[in-house]
Amino acid sequence: MAMRRSSPTEDTSAEPAAVSIRRAGDWLHEGRQHDRAGRIEDAVQCYQEAIGGATPHDSAVRAESMRRLGVIFHLRADTARAQRMCQASRDLAIEIGDNLLAAEAINTLAGLEFEAGEIAAARAGFNRAIALASAYPALVARAEQNLGVLATIQGDLDDALQHYQRSLDASRAANDELGCAITYHNLGMVSSDRRMWDDADGYFKRSLAIAQRLDDVHLQGLCLLNHSEVHIARQRYDEARTSAEAALSIFDRLGARLDKADTYTVLGVVFRETGRTALAESRFRAAIDLALQSGSILSEAEASRELARLYQDMGRNQDALRLLNVSHRLFARLD
Predict the structure, then answer these.
(1) Helix, coil or strand: residue 131
(2) Fewer CB near the terminus (10 Å): N or C of the chain?
(3) Candidates 3.40.50.10420, 3.30.1330.10, 1.10.10.10, 1.25.40.10; correct CATH number of 235-334?
(4) pLDDT top residue among 37 and 262
(5) What number does CATH give the domain 143-215?
(6) Over the Cα atoms of the chain, what is R_g?
(7) For 80-123, how does the pLDDT look when each residue is reduced to its tens digit (9 = 90+)?
């Protein structure tokens, strides 16, 4: 961001504000570094310092810091605070006429709506973000990613692939290696849904290698988590457990409750398939509890479905039927 400089005829009392602007920007820059490396408490402190130290001349720094802090609140299942932060970021970005920051906040808010099962609102938000940020391929790539995830959840894999290809093209246009890594991860998810295990294996490994090189800890965890499902499909249960537990360690360090819920579901499947029913039930229950705390319809639906399958195997048909009905209702909200 270009800083406004004082001319000799202007009141030099403006100079302390320029120092404050630089300081707020420094806090934001440092916060981003901590965030990517998984030092979440340090990131939170930096973003809060940036928000508190920003002057009216530095609204862009304040808007970005609020959005990034909102994302952390979301990962920690503090949905109300996440929404407030992202809404404030959006409103400030619109006020100062910064389309990129406005699109960033709108894209994040749409993600919150998606997690809450508000699919139409989420789709509209992602498309609005793309329209606002058409000149910024890195943001377009992320919004296309989100539309691809939405299509995947709804079972429209062809549409998902189109969104992921547009996302990959935009990431390459922006020279955004991390954006490419996220797309490879999501292509791995689609390949898993299509039971193309070799392709999925390759995409997850490619994404993980980039995430490790860039020191993006959260993406590393997602790659490990979702790669474990490939191992399960191939009945490599020891590898699946090792991968999922490594992911759980990352998410626990990040305080990422939503991702921990999904990891407990995967571990529950591993224990169910290897005959350890008590461990499987405890993991599925933990997953449901965390999903409820996070407000994630999808995570709760998937954990409930997998626990129902366990109860079927155990002959607990009434419990299984109840949970299958719960899962069906939740999945219906995502259509």
Answers:
(1) helix
(2) C
(3) 1.25.40.10
(4) 262
(5) 1.25.40.10
(6) 21
(7) 999 999 999 999 999 999 999 999 999 999 999 998 889 999 99
- Burial category of 2 from C-beta neighbours within 10 Å (exposed 0-12, middle 13-18, buried 19 and up): exposed
Q: How is domain 24-135 classified at the CATH fold level?
A: 1.25.40
- List every span in the chain annotated with CATH 1.25.40.10: 24-135, 143-215, 235-334
Q: Percentage of the chain with pLDDT > 70?
A: 93
Q: At what angle do helices 177-193 and 217-233 cross, to 10 degrees?
A: 20
Confidence of residue 268 (pLDDT cuts 50, 70, 90): very high
Q: What is the pLDDT of residue 256?
A: 93
Between helix 257-273 and helix 59-75 the angle, nearest 10°, is 30
